């Protein structure tokens, strides 16, 4: 039964993705509601039905009071027993059935699937963002917003139907019945409703911005904590335990301060609500008693009116809490929209086709990119890499080597110029096909918190087990992998590697990353200090494997240890975002320029400050 209600809407149903979601609150929530329109309508109807049954029962109590006080008990039973039986059946069977149906459709038809649909679509949208977009925010804050925005939206739907729709229907029903008994009873109720509405408007106007500020403070706290936990090795290594605690305390204090300001509204609101409820009770019950004492109303009307307003009195605190909670959750959604409705700026061109790599020629033409700044990045770079050519990129830190690689992978769109692969502008092909065609090993390759097998298969998910093992052996990784065991008892290729692979040494992570790229077997290979984390013996073995892997591929390799790229077909030397030297190793040594000075200083060393000085 529960499954049936949960299956009323498939949260993973196909939909039209948009690059720019709505940036205003109501349109944003409405953009997710399409599949739920019928379920929402049914929920509102059944919620209203529950409220009507409650009002009717209270009013029937008044009718019953008049009936029982106006005759002989035996005669009353004889004349009205069918009505009494019908009411009993209604209370015992029909009313519970309606309320159970209301709970099922609200909790399972809406509650289970509405938040799931939003979280699924929000996650898909965030995953489409560029690498640069992620680099500009805390990963913890992004994750927090992706998690809490759908939860808050789910709570919004729950409060709208469970509280607001119920309360509005109940108030209308009570007003209709009171006016039917005596229109004068409606006056104190209307006065109370007006004052209550004014109080809610005041509360909402004050709660919404304070709730948003409180939510922002929580996201900031989450981001800071996750940042510290993720980089715990750096925290411990630099002995910044106390500094990091203070960094977190500042964010915790901001959460306390903003939450305290939010609670101030609730405290004032509750105090005023107690007074308003007193006005309601005295007004309606006192007026009804006045009518009774003057013979203008029956005892049943007094009983029914009293029961109605006492029920309203009991509901007002709940309704006020529900409404303020509604706007509190709307504030959380609004804060989360800073992430979840951010437009996708790096996207495929309309009608983009898949990249077709036939030879692997790379042509870089007048490429400039400064990350929106005046200095740094690349400045009018021209470079051609022939099919199957192996090119090494060298230069001091900040020369633009990594920027060039990021633009080749289209992690950013170049500010000017273009990159062509086999004559195809990479900005006009799909990003997925571009990156499928390029294999990359970075200096510090992070792994997913999954099994070793899953991490290697990330290179080519459809690969067979034999291919996975072969790639691991090629990368000199099989011997240590078979000895791995995680805390759950998983061994070998089934062992979990920890978040970002932190349970492994740097060399082990690098070898698994190499196995992943070897399995991918892309026609273009990018190596960014691919063997820097390996010891000399393993590096020598891996280098020979890499040279074999490079056969038939176009290769761009970044290296600070010049000895690792001396065998490349060409070496491109960069400085201050420009190409200043280009040629084979021996030719560059003969030129006596920057590369020759770097080579002379290194003897297999690291390219650091001395190289920068040499360049000057």
TrEMBL record:
The GO terms this record gives for MF are: ABC-type transporter activity; ATP binding; ATP hydrolysis activity; ATPase-coupled lipid transmembrane transporter activity
Indicate the transmembrane segments per the record.
Answer: 39-61, 156-179, 185-204, 265-285
Residues annotated as domain ABC transporter: 362-601
Q: Which GO terms describe its cellular component?
A: plasma membrane
Query: Where does the source fall among the domains of life?
Result: Bacteria
Question: Key word RNA-binding present in the record?
Answer: no
State whether keyword Plastid applies.
no
Bilayer topology: Multi-pass membrane protein
Keyword vocabulary terms for this entry: ATP-binding, Membrane, Nucleotide-binding, Transmembrane, Transmembrane helix
Indicate the principal place this protein occupies in or around the cell: membrane
Protein's cellular compartments: Cell membrane
Report the function annotation for this chain.
Part of an ABC transporter complex. Transmembrane domains (TMD) form a pore in the inner membrane and the ATP-binding domain (NBD) is responsible for energy generation.
The name on file for this protein is: ABC transporter ATP-binding protein
What organism is listed for this UniProt entry? Histidinibacterium aquaticum
Instruction: Specify the taxonomic lineage.
Output: Bacteria, Pseudomonadati, Pseudomonadota, Alphaproteobacteria, Rhodobacterales
């Amino acid at each position: 039964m529960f499954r049936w209600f949960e299956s009323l809407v498939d949260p993973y149903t196909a939909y039209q993705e948009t690059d720019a979601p709505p940036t205003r609150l109501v349109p944003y929530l409405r953009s997710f509601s399409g599949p739920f329109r019928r379920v929402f309508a049914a929920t509102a109807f059944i919620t209203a039905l529950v409220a009507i049954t409650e009002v009717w029962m209270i009013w029937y109590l008044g009718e019953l009071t008049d009936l029982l006080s106006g005759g002989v008990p035996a005669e009353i039973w004889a004349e009205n027993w069918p009505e009494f039986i019908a009411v009993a059946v209604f209370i015992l069977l029909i009313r519970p059935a309606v309320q159970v149906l209301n709970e099922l459709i609200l909790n399972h038809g809406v509650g289970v699937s509405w938040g799931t649909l939003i979280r699924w679509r929000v996650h898909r949208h965030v995953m489409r963002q560029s690498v640069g977009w992620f680099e500009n925010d805390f990963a913890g804050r992004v994750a927090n917003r992706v998690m809490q925005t759908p939860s808050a939206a789910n709570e919004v739907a729950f409060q709208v139907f469970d509280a607001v729709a119920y309360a509005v229907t109940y108030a209308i029903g009570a007003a209709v019945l009171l006016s039917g008994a005596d229109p004068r009873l409606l006056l104190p109720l209307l006065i109370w409703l007006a004052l209550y509405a004014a109080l809610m408007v005041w509360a909402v106007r004050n709660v919404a911005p304070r709730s948003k500020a409180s939510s922002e403070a929580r996201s900031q706290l989450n981001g800071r904590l996750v940042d510290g936990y993720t980089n715990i090795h750096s925290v411990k290594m630099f002995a910044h335990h106390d500094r990091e605690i203070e960094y977190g305390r500042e964010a915790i204090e901001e959460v306390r301060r903003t939450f305290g300001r939010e609670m101030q509204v609730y405290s004032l609101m509750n105090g005023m609500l107690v007074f308003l409820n007193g006005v309601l009770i005295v007004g309606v019950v006192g007026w009804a008693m006045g009518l009774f004492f003057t013979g203008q109303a029956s005892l049943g009307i007094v009983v029914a009116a009293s029961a109605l307003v006492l029920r309203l009195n009991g509901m007002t605190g709940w309704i006020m809490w529900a409404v303020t909670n509604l706007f509190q959750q709307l504030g959380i959604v609004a804060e989360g929209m800073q992430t979840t409705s951010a437009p996708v700026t790096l996207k495929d061109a309309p009608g983009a086709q898949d990249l077709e790599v036939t030879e692997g020629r790379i042509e870089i033409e007048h490429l400039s990119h400064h990350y929106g700044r005046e200095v740094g990045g690349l400045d009018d770079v021209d470079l051609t890499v022939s099919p199957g050519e192996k090119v090494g990129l060298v230069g001091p830190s900040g020369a633009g080597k990594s920027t060039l690689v990021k633009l080749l992978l289209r992690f950013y769109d170049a500010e000017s110029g273009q990159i062509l692969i086999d004559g195809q502008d990479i900005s006009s092909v799909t990003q997925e096909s571009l990156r499928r065609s390029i294999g990359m090993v970075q200096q510090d390759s992070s792994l997913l918190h999954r099994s070793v097998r899953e991490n290697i298969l990330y290179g080519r998910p459809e690969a067979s087990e034999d291919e996975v093992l072969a790639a691991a052996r090629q990368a000199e990784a099989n011997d240590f992998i078979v000895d791995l065991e995680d805390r759950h008892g998983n061994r070998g290729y089934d062992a979990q590697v920890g978040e970002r692979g932190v349970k492994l040494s740097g060399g082990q992570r690098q070898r698994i990353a190499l196995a992943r790229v070897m399995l991918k077997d892309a026609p273009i290979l990018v190596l960014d200090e691919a063997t820097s984390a390996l010891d000399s013996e393993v590096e020598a073995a891996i280098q020979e494997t890499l040279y074999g892997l490079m056969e038939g591929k176009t290769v761009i390799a970044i290296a600070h240890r010049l000895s690792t790229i001396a065998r490349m077909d060409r070496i491109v030397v960069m400085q201050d975002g420009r190409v200043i030297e280009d040629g084979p190793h021996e030719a560059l040594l003969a030129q006596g320029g920057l590369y020759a000075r770097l080579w002379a200083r290194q003897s297999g060393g690291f390219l650091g400050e001395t190289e920068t000085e040499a360049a000057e």
